[in-house]
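Figure 2 data, in text form.
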Amino acid sequence: PGSLLFSIPAKAMMNAVTLKPHYPPETVEALTGIQLVCMHLFLWHPRGDSEDSEDPLFGPYISTLPREFGSHPLTWVVQSKHQSTVCQDGHPLRLLPPGVSSALDHLHRRFTDDWYRVHSVMIQPFMSAKIRERAASVNDAKAVMDFLWAWLNVNTRCIYYRLKSSKSDPDNFTLCPILDFANHNSYTPNMRPGPTNADIWNSAPVPSIGEGLRFFACDDTKIREDDEIMLSYGRHSNKTFFVEYGFVNGPHDVATRVCGEVDVQDILEESIYGGQRRSRVIKDLLVAEGYWGDWVLFSTPDSAQVSWPLIASLRLHHLMGTAIEIDSDVQLWQDVVGGRRERISDDNEQSCRESILHICEVVTGRAQQVLEMDLGQSHGQQYIRNIRSLWVEELFVARAVKESVYRGDVF
C-alpha cells in the first residue's frame, strides 16, 4: 500500500509545452493547448490500421492509442452529420434521455469549434512545412473523421498536469503513456497520481516542461501479482461518463443510492417557461442574474438534492404568479438568492416543493416508459445496456429526490 508503481518523465508526455518547440510561433499562439495536441495527432495519424505512426517525436506512443471510437456517442453524431447516416427511430441517439442529448450536442459544438479552428491554422502558409499532404476541405468527411479520432483520444485520455501559473488554466493537461492502459473504477481504484511540486507550491512548474508524473498504489489497497491497475476518473454521473468517455458504470442495486444527476431543463422550459410574455420576463431576469440553466436533480450516497439555480428559478416562477411585469416583490427573491433572506414565504416554498415533485414524476414516467420498451439489439447489446443504464440512473435519482421532498429535507 502507498508504494510507487511507475513514473513517467516529463519529456515522454504530449502536451502544449512539449509540442511548442516543434511548431511555428504563429501556430502556438493561434491554438489552445487542446487544439495543438489534437492537430499533432491528426497530422501523425497512422496511415493504416496495421501501420505505426511516423511521428519522430511521439510515434511509438501514438501507435498504442485506440484506432477507432465506434462505440462513442460523439462518433454517432459526427457520422450522422458528415457521412449522411440517417438516425432512424430505433437509433441509439433517439433513445437517449433529453439531458444526455443536450450534453452530447454541447460536446459536438466543442469538437466542431476545435476542428474549424485547427483547419483554419493548418491552411496558413506558416504551416506548409508541417503538412505532409495537401489540406482537405473543412467539410471533407475523411478529414473530419480523422480529426474526431484525434479529438476523442485527447478528450478521453488526457489528465490534469500543472503547466501554468494559474491552477485553473485549461492548458494544465497532458497525454501520458502507460497510464492509458489503466481502466476506470468508481468504487475500488487501486492507483492514484502523486502531487507534483507545482501542485504542492501552487505555482508554475520549474522547469516549464514539468517534472513528470508518479503513480502510487492507494494507501488502503494491496496490489498482488496479475491484479489489474484501476484508476478513478472521478465521482461523476453516468451522463458525464457516457458523453465524455463513451461508457457507463455498471447497473446499480435498487436499494443503493447512486451518484447521478438528471438535467431537467426541457421539463421546465416546456411546462413553466413557454412562449408567454410572462415567461419571457422571468427568463430575462434569470439570465441577467445568472440562474438560467444548470437545472438538475442530483444524488450522492448521502443525499438527494436539486441544484441551486433550479430552486432559485422555481421560487421566482411562483413569486410572480400570473404577473407579466416585474414589480417590487422581486426584491424578495433577490434578497433570497443574495443570501440576505432565508425564504420568500412558506407558501412560496411549498409551491416550489410541489413543482419539484411534479418534475420527479415526469422524469420517473418517461424513464419507466423507455425501460418497458423492447429496445432491440440492432445496434449491439452494449449500446442498449448503456442506454438502459442512463435511464435507470434517471429513475433512481428522481425517486431519491422525491423521497427527500417527502422527508422535508432543506433545499
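Caption note: The chain has a mean pLDDT of 90.
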